[in-house]
Amino acid sequence: MDKNDEEKPKDSMNDQEMPRSEDWKARVARRADPAEWPTESLFQKGEQVWIASPGSRGVRGPFKIVGVLGNEQYRVRDERLGTEEQVPGANMKRRP
Q1: What predicted TM-score, i.e. pTM, was given to this entire model?
Q2: Sorting pLDDT into bands at 50, 70 and 90, what band is 91?
Q3: Cα–Cα 20 to 30 A to 12, which of 37, 39, 48, 83?
Q4: SS3 5
């Protein structure tokens, strides 16, 4: 299989394709409790963020970054649903 032919993850909400992993700007894992394994992974490209649960083949998003709340806390909006949530940007691991 050619690298360009690899299957891209689909958005479980609206079946949009995510950017390829090499295009992601950052990745962060959110934990419900610091003692637990990560419960969600967040992938960012520009002002867009996708959210994936562990073991899931799909992702939610894209969400748009609509604000920085200080200490690298981002507020993101799902334009389709009109809902907002916080993203703990301080935990982001920048890609080299």
Answers
A1: 0.42
A2: very low
A3: 37
A4: helix
